[in-house]
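Appendix B. One record, verbatim.
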Amino acid sequence: MLSHLQPQPEDKILQLMALYRDDPRTDKVDLGVGVYKNAKGVTPVMRAIKAAEHQLWETQETKSYVGLAGDPAYGVAMRDLVLDGAVDNGRVASAATPGGTGAIRQALELIKMANPDATIWLSAPTWPNHPSIIKYLGMKMAEYRYFDNTTRDVDFPGMMDDLKAVKKGDVVLLHGCCHNPTGANLTLPQWENVVDALEKTGAIPFIDIAYQGFGDGLDADAAATRLVASRMPEMLIAASCSKNFGIYRERTGILMAISPGTKTQTVAQGSLAYLNRQNFSFPPDHGARLVTMILNDNALRADWKSELEDTRLNMLSLREQLASELRQRTNSDRFDFLAHHRGMFSRLGATTEQVLAMRKSHGIYMVGDSRLNIAGLNANTVPILAEAIVASGV
């Protein structure tokens, strides 16, 4: 049997990590892997996480299973963090998942179970795992225009034109904030127009919100998701705690399904539990329990929000520094988009050849489509990157 397996394509980011690891240069810069790093190049454990873990160690009496959908208290805490009362609580079903990726996978399984003929519409570009999972599941897929490589901003007219082709029952996958890989985001008035289009076509919105708190703040980053939820009868939300709680390896995510009413919600909740049972039975609990403890404890929550805000402001400062360095070196404002983008990533707009030139001559490692992880920089490496960008003719 195993002799019939075919080699699978290697993940480009994992390939990049290996190349970076094997590069002997001491001044190399890793802007590929999507994790937050502080000025020392370390992905720190947040203070509130440490404190919650200590409390948990002292008080936890069992490691027995939780429910198929996870601890209900986690579902409530995350529902309130993301939606904050935007819809009636009785319409929201939820299930804990192994990370945000697990939530996306379960959402697609749910769509396939409910409407196998649905087409999933993705932004061009989007996070590579979106199309990869859809393709693996054998589902229909289409793209809508999103990023203008010339302006490095959202191609909103193109996006709206493409959304006219969406059919009733199709699913439109949208990034709630901090678009990955581009960093370019819709404004709230533009989100209003998107919801108008979804209402007209009868499409189902599916929001992937993996970076709440990394862009403009916890509430500002959730504003679009709350707007969509307040206006649409049905939607799916995949949320991740990897970034904003810094618990990447704990694989802590959640899938929420908003139904038209409580009767449908009951069926949706049972379906989410059923899908968890088929894929991994009970979801991991450690990270979810830490998140629940933090969100339900005033002191822990305040400390978490403070450190998260420091993280956000650090990335914003790096963006502004990089834009300033490039403005000085080029005597133009053509890279000011870097300061306007939000979140961990920006797409530079460089060609594959220019990306390779930066890697070869300057030890700058970024994904081939020129997505760079702003959080991989620090005050000392920003000038190195700026010099590499200019020298490579971007």
